[in-house]
Amino acid sequence: MKIVLGVSGGIAAYKAPELVRRLQDAGAEVRVILTPNAARFVSPLSLAAVSGHGVIVEQWGDSGSGGVDHIEFARWADLLLIAPASANILAKLATGIADDALTTYAVAHRGDVMVAPAMNTFMLQHPTVIANVETLRARGVIILEPDTGLLACGDEGAGRLPDVPVIVERVRTHFAARDLEGRNILITAGPTREAIDPVRYLSNRSSGKMGYALAEAAVRRGANVTLVSGPTSLMTPAGVSFEQISSASEMYERVMNALPQHQIVIKAAAVADFTPVEVADRKIKKGDRDELTLTLKKTPDILAAIGERSPKPFVVAFAAETDSVEANAKTKLLKKNADLIVANDVADKSIGFDSEQNEVLVLARDGSTTRLAKAPKLVIANRILDLVLARLGRA
Ligand code: PMT
Predict the structure, then answer these.
(1) Catalytic-labelled residue, pool 1, 26, 108, 153
(2) Ligand 1 center to residue 169 CA distance, Å?
(3) Residue 77, Cβ neighbours under 10 Å: how many?
(4) What are phi and psi of 237, to 5 degrees?
(5) Which fold has domain 184-394?
(6) pLDDT value at position 284?
(7) What is the reported pLDDT for 394?
(8) CB of 219 closer than 6 A to ligand 1?
(9) How far apart are CA 185 and CA 261, in angstroms?
(10) 153 catalytic residue (yes or no)
(11) Cβ contacts of residue 361 below 8 Å, gap of 6+?
(12) How do the domains of the chain map onto residue ranges?
């Protein structure tokens, strides 16, 4: 992995030395180019020290090599990673402006490009920024979606640079061996919505992040991925065949239709177990009643239906448990005839539902267990796929 790390001017530039270190730990060789504005936030000297190489800031020959470093780098690099990417550099990249060392290099670069936009939410939502990101995406640039949280300016919202381990995992996944080439994988993700009337529904806290991370990791590793997803606010990973559903019965239909074309099924969705017996065709009025009783009926158990198929695909189930996590997951694994089950302890709010990280216990039918320590969901996704591959290799 030969990476040119471009750093543009933004508060998150202070994470650049840590990013260089962690990329090196992952086996990458890293060279750094800073914009002059980035050099106000992070010292070129620290980056030179951690990368072990000179850092380029000035466009015109501050390394004494006649000002053609960008061509040398372009012959060398596999990936240009720009993190953080400011609104300014996104605009320059989208239009081809080359007025400093980094943007000049970006025009000369021949390999893949990955950018991590990071800025205030208002800036991120500006139509020109959205348009520039879309221009870059359409050109094949890989966009690392910014995180949501407390921003340097004190506002809360989207725009944070993803944590360094998440960026490193994206890079690792990008370079991963295409060890799932030729495999067709069906993944379910997100919540289902069970309608009560035209404006109300029963649902759950699943954000879809775990299932989408699995889809992204699998597609990067060469798999043909079908993602059947309930409603989420996530971007569909590039290269995935996407099917949007709402209710458990819609998910059942899509999954069962797609099943014959897939050798591996991963059921990360949080499917409702019950749905209203009757759906009112008009909004239910409060009137003067103090109580409302809903009668619910069981939804189709998609996982159990897959487990009864013959021939059966390789099935990875998920289990969201608040107590007796391992024992309950084991019962589900056997009852639903899955090959692996990924058990989440959803009593812990820092993992599982709607969190960036997860920590799981994977149980197999032969009784073996693998604990995957707390890590970003993309890391967990890759480790789950490693376990699937190890089992299929052995089959
Ligand atoms: O989406 P995130 O916010 O990233 O959160 C991830 C997650 C916690 C939702 C996910 O990792 C997870 O645990 N998904 C399964 C949640 C769940 O519904 O667990 P369960 O124990 O109720 O169901 C067990 C399995 O049966 C699951 O694979 C589920 O998809 C499947 N099932 C359940 C009911 C049903 N009618 N049909 C099914 O196929």
Answers:
(1) 153
(2) 24
(3) 23
(4) -60, 140
(5) Rossmann fold (3.40.50)
(6) 94
(7) 47
(8) no
(9) 9
(10) yes
(11) 325, 326, 329, 342, 343, 369, 370, 371, 372
(12) 2-175, 184-394
Q: How far is the CA of 191 from the centre of ligand 1 (A)?
A: 8
CB of 210 closer than 6 A to ligand 1?
A: yes
Distance 162 CA to ligand 1 centre (A): 26
β strands within 99-258, DSSP E: 112-117, 142-143, 147-150, 156-160, 184-189, 194-197, 200-202, 224-229, 241-244
| Ligand 1: nearest atom to the Cα of 355 | 3
| 2-175 and 184-394 share one fold | yes
Q: How far apart are CA 110 and CA 222, in angstroms?
A: 22
Ligand 1 centroid – CA 342 distance (Å): 10
Q: What is the pLDDT of residue 63?
A: 52
In this structure, the number of other CB atoms found within 10 A of the CB of residue 385 comes to 25
Q: Which residues of the chain have pLDDT under 50?
A: 64, 66, 394-395
Which residues face 3 on adjacent strands? 30, 79
pTM as predicted: 0.83
Q: According to the model, what pLDDT value does residue 379 have? A: 87
Helices (H) and strands (E) in the chain, counts: 14, 19
From residue 173, how far is each of 24, 161, 356, 378, 382 by CA, in Å?
Answer: 15, 18, 17, 9, 8
Give the residue whose CA is nearest to atom 23 of ligand 1. 319
- Give the Cα separation of 342 and 187 in Å (integer): 14
CATH topology of domain 2-175: Rossmann fold (3.40.50)
Residue 68 pLDDT:
58
Residue-wise pLDDT for 180-230, tens only, equals 999 999 999 999 999 999 999 999 999 999 999 999 999 989 999 999 999
Pocket test for ligand 1, best of 303, 332, 337, 340 (most atoms within 8 A of CB): 303
